[in-house]
Amino acid sequence: MTDDTKIARKDLVSGLRWFPEQALKYLTSLILDFTGFQAVATFAEAHNKRIWEDIITLLSTQARLPALNLELHIKEFYFDDSFNQSFRASPGYEQRMRATYIEMFEVAKGLRGLKNLFVHLDWSSSTGEDDGRQELEGLLERMVMGEHYDAWEYGKTTRFRNSYEAMYGYD
Fold it and tell me: Which domain of life is it from (predicted)?
């Protein structure tokens, strides 16, 4: 297990552990923030898969889904970057990453009935608008919410600046 998967695992475990289950039904908005996440490495571990499944089960059984706006902020550690070779992922990582997200959101279908779902993917090394991120976010949101769901119509906003923008101060 790499340090990054430990970070993600810690975030997954600590995200809701302290929160009283009975209080979940009163939430109208919940943001789960996964920073330094490596989808492929983290989700490949059975323990981490089980934690994700437990979070989905907890929310689907304890939260009032029709009243809950759920945001998932996932900052992916690896992504191909043509400007910085040190960020270049192993061959095929992008395809494995996308497949892993789809596998994760197959589990998240248990949250169907949410008021809103906003998925925000931050690919640290991505510097372009047309990097496929919005298409993947939309696919993941529709997997849970239904094929005609468009998060932008329900108030989704841009949440992350990519690392290039943060480094050079562009907004």
Answer: Eukaryota
The one-digit pLDDT tens for each residue of the chain (171 residues) are 444 444 344 454 455 666 677 888 999 999 887 766 666 677 777 877 888 888 898 899 989 999 999 999 887 765 544 555 544 556 677 777 788 889 999 999 999 999 999 998 876 655 556 667 889 999 999 999 999 999 999 999 876 555 444 444 444
pTM summary value: 0.75
Q: Please report, as a single letter, which amino acid is at residue 87.
A: F
Structural domain span for residue 136: 3-168
* Contact present, 151 and 119 (Cβ < 8 Å): yes
Q: Which residue has the tokens 């993941």?
A: 140
